[in-house]
TrEMBL record:
Similarity-based family: Belongs to the purine/pyrimidine phosphoribosyltransferase family.
Organism: Fodinisporobacter ferrooxydans
Pfam families: Pribosyltran
Protein name (record): Hypoxanthine phosphoribosyltransferase
Record key words, sorted: Cytoplasm, Glycosyltransferase, Magnesium, Metal-binding, Nucleotide-binding, Purine salvage, Transferase
UniProt function note: Purine salvage pathway enzyme that catalyzes the transfer of the ribosyl-5-phosphate group from 5-phospho-alpha-D-ribose 1-diphosphate (PRPP) to the N9 position of the 6-oxopurines hypoxanthine and guanine to form the corresponding ribonucleotides IMP (inosine 5'-monophosphate) and GMP (guanosine 5'-monophosphate), with the release of PPi.
Domain (Phosphoribosyltransferase): residue spans on this chain: 14-159
Gene3D superfamilies: 3.40.50.2020
Lineage: Bacteria, Bacillati, Bacillota, Bacilli, Bacillales
Subcellular location: Cytoplasm
Keyword DNA damage applies: no
Gene Ontology molecular function: glycosyltransferase activity
Gene name, Swiss-Prot/TrEMBL: hpt
Enzyme class, broadest EC rank: transferase
Principal subcellular localization: cytoplasm
Amino acid sequence: MQQDILEVLFTEEMIQDKVRELGAAISRDYTGKSPLFICILKGAVMFMADLAKRTDIPLEMDFMAISSYGDSTKSSGVVRILKDLDKEVEGRDLIIVEDIIDSGLTLSYLRNLLLQRNAKSIRIVTLFDKPEGRTVNISPNYFGFQVPNRFIVGYGLDYADKYRNLPYVGILRPEVYSH
Ligand SMILES: O=P(O)(O)OC[C@H]1O[C@H](OP(=O)(O)OP(=O)(O)O)[C@H](O)[C@@H]1O
Ligand SMILES: Nc1nc2[nH]cnc2c(=O)[nH]1
């Protein structure tokens, strides 16, 4: 797997330091509250697990699987819910946990859905933000790193469902896409 990586952009240590910072900020902002962390599967699974451990408040967790990319590096524009939440969100403080915001289509769809379900508040935390990719107007409340307009993999982020288990984040060699 390592040999498929052209360049490492964010090392394991950089990621873990940033996750600690984000956990501390959320803990401060949500003191006395018990927000529901909503992990957007599958990409956000690593970030959710690490962030929750660094957040010192009585949070709850739920999981939603959404896909708009399939096996491609471009969003299809069609957002599909593959698994819905188990919990009711009405009247709750929600924190949507994402690995990356690119076009913004996934989050824009999701935020509208959760507003319709009468959430009390909705904030978004993403580890990576790719502002140049944006086609809809949405921005995170908390973000770890801004990334260039390149397709990145690792730490939950996949290409064709692979590379999610890399502990760091990087860019694939061009040959990998032509296989
Ligand atoms: O801002 P957008 O352009 O909508 O892109 C962001 C979404 O794309 C990825 O999910 P993907 O659809 O690849 O599913 P996955 O998390 O299961 O890999 C990522 O995890 C975000 O949810
Ligand atoms: N793996 C991966 N998924 C994405 N979804 C939206 N942007 C990206 C990206 O850069 N990498």
